[in-house]
Amino acid sequence: xxxxxxxxxxxxxxxxxxxxxxxxxxxxxxxxxxxxxxxxxxxxxxxxxxxxxxxxxxxxxxxxxxxxxxxxxxxxxxxxxxxxxxxxxxxxxxxxxxxxxxxxxxxxxxxxxxxxxxxxx
Length: 121
What we know:
By secondary structure, the protein is mainly alpha-helical. It has four helices and two strands; from the N terminus they run H-E-E-H-H-H.
């Protein structure tokens, strides 16, 4: 029978997907919140519900205004902080030399010149 909700939940993890660096956010008036992740799964997969009047579906993605409720402003600030942490961690990981890269460099050190590389062109 279609839709096969149980099969989809098994495949994607239902309310506890195996994810990192995901911020699950809902507005208290969002009817979709009940089928989403509402409890934090880990430090890198937090879940929050904006408890404010007018906080409905995708409210945290809308244009910011001065009239936004304080709970919504706090939610957006927390989302921004998590994204900064994740980007900083990814950037630091890219700067660290990997052992695989070091092994490849040791196996085939570059001894040529730019002219040799460009010569065929």
